[in-house]
Design a protein that fits this description.
alpha/beta, eight-stranded parallel sheet, 20% strand
């Protein structure tokens, strides 16, 4: 993986959950990791909501949209520190649609000087990315807006708490079709830890174990009651 990881995907793909899990998976003593929340267009889940957890792991969180208190397209100048300090591993969580991805175009000169990974998080259970034609069209739209090329595919097919093994395997088939169509590698299949043993031996690519941190308000209440 390169120093710069940029996470994109359709609204509801689970890209923010993936970005948070990716950052936490990299955390170790001495590592310098920054997660920049650049999801500034119609955000629902925001990675900055996990700031306390991330900072406890030693990860710097850079928040946009006026510190996360206002849903307006404002970019924190601190994002530039990720480009300027080559000792930092940067994870950029960008908007979940082509318009949201447009924010990257602001950093085009810096990005062109970087070796980076632009990861397309794919959820086969979203109607806009339900088949390979839709998924490819959506990916190309993101590329056009952010003026960067996707470098890898992440299968993150889920149905929140209702996710089944069959959902992940359906997403794997779609990711493989998209990989064959584009020549892009499947980086891994993201799945809740409860599925990891069940997936063993079923997929050729690595499994990325996920914890579910991003929860809807009613799910938090339910968990507390349980």
């Amino acid at each position: 993986m390169h120093r710069m990881q940029i996470i994109t995907g359709h609204y509801g793909s689970g890209k923010t959950e993936y970005a948070v899990n990716l950052a936490l998976s990299m955390a170790r003593p001495g590592a310098r990791i920054s997660l920049a929340d650049l999801d500034i267009v119609n955000p629902y889940f925001r990675s900055f909501e996990q700031t306390a957890r991330l900072e406890e792991a030693g990860i710097q969180v850079i928040v946009t949209s006026c510190g996360g208190v206002a849903d307006i397209p404002a970019i924190n100048p601190a994002v530039m520190s990720i480009f300027q300090n080559k000792d930092i591993t940067g994870i950029l969580d960008i908007g979940g649609d082509p318009i949201g991805a447009r924010v990257l175009a602001r950093f085009a000169p810096q990005l062109h000087a970087e070796e980076l990974d632009l990861l397309y998080v794919l959820n086969a259970n979203r109607p806009e990315t339900k088949d390979v034609d839709c998924a490819l069209e959506y990916m190309r739209a993101i590329e056009r807006e952010c003026k960067q090329k996707v470098t890898g595919i992440v299968n993150n097919t889920h149905l929140c708490r209702e996710t089944r093994l069959e959902d992940i395997l359906k997403g794997a088939r779609l990711a493989q079709e998209l990989s064959q169509r584009t020549g892009l590698p499947i980086i891994h299949h993201a799945a809740e830890r409860r599925f990891v043993n069940q997936l063993a031996g079923l997929l050729s690519e690595p499994i990325f174990p996920m914890e579910i941190y991003m929860k809807k308000p009613w799910e938090i209440t339910t968990c507390e009651e349980e």
